[in-house]
Amino acid sequence: MVSLSTWFRYAAHKFEYSISLSWKKYNVGQINSTELTDAIWKSFFQGKLTFAHWTKGGEAMAPIVAATGGTVLVRKLAALTPKQVFVGDIVLLKDPEKSDDLIVRRLAALEGYEIVSTDEKDEPFVLDKDQCWVLAENQVLKAKEARDSRLFGPVPMTDIVGRVIYSLRTAVDHGPVDNSNIAMSQDSPVLAVELDVEELAKNNKM
Q1: Most-buried pick from 29, 45, 77, 134 (CB within 10 A)?
Q2: Number of folded domains in the chain?
Q3: Above 80 in pLDDT, residue 205?
Q4: Do 75 and 166 lie in a common domain?
Q5: Cβ-contact 156, 107 below 8 angstroms
Q6: Which residues does UniProt assign to the signal peptide (predicted)?
Q7: What is the pLDDT of residue 122?
Q8: Average of per-residue pLDDT across 107-136
Q9: pLDDT tens digit string along 133-158?
Q10: Are 201 and 186 in contact (CB under 8 A)?
Q11: From 16, 35, 59, 145, active-site residue
């Protein structure tokens, strides 16, 4: 049973998302000024803040995602700013090497962060505006095996599709994803209202 306070928090997040998404569409010319209000309310009443995504898996994100793959619940983010995504978050993003694919990685640094390599031959550098640095969860893997920013470099923030908030590896092995404390606080009412494990299981190809 979802409490009333949780519903209010969920509604506030949904309204904020609806405004941000509609304003974004307006700014790129997808809707005009007369359609803006309707777009906000349509998104608020008919849309959801999450979607299920099947990920191929692999060793890079173990144990968050099983090596054989699994279904993740992704929270949509209309504005990809340091106020919406945070260092420590698990994100779904476009594969820098295969633009038609999506990969799951942990956000390790945002714009303005200095990146220092363990290899003394590499010069430190600072991430530019709207850039981020992502890493595989499996620290044992080498850069080429992990396929993260150590291999393909900084990633544009616009390549982030959303934040992964729940992972279903099998029907009996699933749970919330360990994101940054701020993100987990923001996402808790979304999980409480929109999480449907049975529906996630239907998307699982295991």
Answers
A1: 134
A2: 2
A3: no
A4: yes
A5: no
A6: none
A7: 84
A8: 92
A9: 999 999 888 888 899 999 999 999 99
A10: no
A11: 59
Q: How far apart are CA 91 and CA 69, in angstroms?
A: 16
Q: Are residues 92 and 169 in the same domain?
A: yes
- H/E segment holding residue 104: strand 98-109
Residue-level pLDDT at 136? 95
User: How many Cα atoms are found within 13 Å in the side-chain-facing hemisphere of 16?
Assistant: 13
CA angle 102, 46, 41 (to 5 degrees): 110
Quick check: 26 and 33 in contact, CB under 8 A? Answer: yes
Query: Which tokens is 76 given?
Result: 């949509």
Same-domain pairing of 57 and 150: yes
Q: Using the 3D structure, point to which of 16, 31, 47 is the last residue of a domain.
A: 47
**Residue range 65-70: mean pLDDT, rounded:** 88
**Based on the domain organization, do 40 and 115 belong to the same domain?**
no
CB 65 within 8 Å of CB 55: yes
Say yes or no: 98 and 159 in one domain.
yes
26 and 112 both lie in a single domain: no
Residue 134's domain comprises 49-203
Q: Do the Cβ atoms of 105 and 135 come closer than 8 Å? A: yes
**Looking at the predicted structure, is the pLDDT value of residue 179 above 60?**
yes
35, 75, 97, 105: which one is catalytic?
A: 105
Q: Is 105 designated active site?
A: yes
Q: Which amino acid is at 124?
A: P
Distance between CA atoms of residues 16 and 11, nearest Å: 9
